[in-house]
Design brief:
Number of strands: 11
CATH topology of the largest domain: D-Maltodextrin-Binding Protein, domain 2
Radius of gyration: 19 Å
Number of helices: 11
Strand content: 15-25%
Distance between the termini: 19 Å
Protein name: ABC transporter substrate-binding protein
Order of helices and strands: HHEEEHEHEHEEHEHEHEHHEH
Pfam families: SBP_bac_3
Mean pLDDT: 89
Domain Solute-binding protein family 3/N-terminal: 58-283
Signal peptide: 1-28
Keywords: Signal
């Protein structure tokens, strides 16, 4: 998880638990588009597959399924979301079936480098630090967007002394907020109190319940959280720090080129755009699928 760009808010029904917490686990008005089921194999992409994966006929995909609407769980516990549909489409283009391994976000890259997972689809922001471990097939641009309680005044550029909730190990947690906090301390101002949570719904609930002044997340995720909060949350400022999402693949693997070819084929035949459109996230779509944009961009 996690990247950037402002996108349209979802017209999803607001679902609140009796405790007043936001329930982001099963969106009532967000369902799979079904587009991936119509995608056929691309011979050129299939030809690039490593032989062991081609022989197995299965693409093992790691996801944390806790970052709606990108990837989350349906009522039966199966992963859904627009990122999951893109991963389904990649597998279809490669003539493979999918096997999802749901894991905590910070365990996905180690699973790839350890050989138990083929690719990671979990809204990973491509950055130079992560590129030391894995390769990225870039497929979307997104930005950071903050949210705060309705009626409050929160400026992400003037956040010293605030309490800010994030999902742990996202770029907001590891890069954005530490940098902002260091600037506060260097200026002799009150530090930012960062509250990391294991899932985005927990971070959202912290703001709804008054435990935090604001949350910071990728723009599609923040807008979705706002739409689910029954009018309790508002955007705090505009989207900023646009960066690419990438499918993560083991460093130097031939699978990287195969995934790139599969995604480019989806862009070219329109299935990529249809999936983004169905989920309301077309603003971050791209026309050319790249590899390791953080270092090659």
């Amino acid at each position: 998880m996690r990247a950037r760009y402002i996108v349209p808010a979802f017209a999803a029904a607001a679902v609140l638990l009796l405790t007043g917490c936001v329930d982001n686990s099963t969106p009532a008005a967000t369902t799979p588009s079904g587009e991936a089921s119509t995608i056929e194999a691309d011979a050129a992409a299939v030809a690039l597959l490593p032989e062991d994966i081609k022989s197995a006929g299965v693409l093992v995909i790691g996801t944390d399924a806790a970052y709606p609407p990108n990837e989350f769980k349906d009522e039966s516990g199966e992963p859904i979301g627009w990122g999951i549909e893109l991963a389904d489409g990649i597998a279809a283009k490669l003539g493979l079936t999918t096997k999802y391994q749901i894991a905590s976000f910070d365990n996905i890259i180690p699973s790839i480098t350890g050989g138990t997972v083929d690719i990671g689809e979990s809204s990973f922001t491509d950055n130079l630090e992560r590129e030391k471990q894995v390769d990225f097939v870039n497929y979307y641009n997104a930005g950071i967007l903050w949210a705060s309680p309705v009626g409050s005044t929160v400026d992400p550029d003037n956040a010293c002394g605030l309490t800010v909730a994030v999902q742990s190990n996202t770029v907001e947690d590891t890069d954005e907020l530490p940098a902002k906090n260091a600037a506060c301390v260097a200026a002799g101002k009150e530090p930012i109190d960062v509250l990391p949570y294991g899932s985005q719904d927990e971070a959202t609930n912290a703001v709804v319940l008054g435990k935090a002044d604001a949350l910071s997340a990728d723009s599609p995720v923040t807008l979705y959280a706002i739409s689910k909060a029954d009018g309790k949350l508002q955007p705090a400022g505009e989207s900023f720090d646009t960066a690419p999402y990438g499918i993560t693949v083991d460093k130097g693997s031939d699978l990287t080129a195969a995934v790139q070819a599969a995604l480019q084929s989806m862009v070219d035949d329109g299935s990529y755009g249809k999936i983004l459109d169905a989920w309301g996230v077309t603003d971050g779509g791209i026309e050319t699928i790249t590899i390791n944009a953080a270092s090659n961009g």
